[in-house]
Amino acid sequence: MFKRIGSAVVLVATLLLGACVGPVPKIDAPLERLVEIKSIAVVKVPEPKTYTVFNMGHPGMAFGLIGGLVAAADQSSKQDTLSAAYKAQGTAINTLLVKQLATRLEAQGYAVTEQDAPWVEANGGYTLAFDKLESPADAILVVSPTMVGFVSPPRVGVYLPTITSVVVLLGKDKTKPIYRGFHSAGWKPLAEGWRNTEAKTTFPDFAALMADTKASASRLEKSASDIADSVAQDLKRVQKTAAAP
Fold it and tell me: Which pTM value belongs to this model?
């Protein structure tokens, strides 16, 4: 039990740090490179091992280490409960996100395929070595959700359906990203560089998330759609036109 609580404390600290410390620099996609890309392989992403339920304003956070342990245990319990419900009903947010991305990019004129990738389990999640990717496409798009679930920011008092994700577009050589974007839907990390879409629906408490888990999952699906729209906007290309005679 202490191991689980300790892990939850680390998670709380990590999320708080992630809200304050800037990510690696984003890279805007050069229009001239996008015009040259005809085909994109969108990498399939494993589903989250645990859906996030994070109350940044939890009362226990105000009472030092003991209060932090209480908050972490409460968070861990809520996450386990929600995750079990979502897995039982077949919720697959990351799969939907990849499909939505593929659809948006196809609508912009790219030839798009979805492909498997050698994700490796690590630290309660997954990692992917870009140099292990293989594809005949002109570019490979890797979307890496860093949080999928519900966040209640301090002084807000409601849960926001939230997805945060790092998105990288690689050329055939896979050595240097053509594009790196930071996209969030719902809660917006405090660091610079995040492109955020605000949540249109909120939940007053954890009981509301669990009252109808299909309904709360559908709001995460909307967040996935918002992320897909945001990424597609970043990768929108302008076709070259013939010079006037």
Answer: 0.83
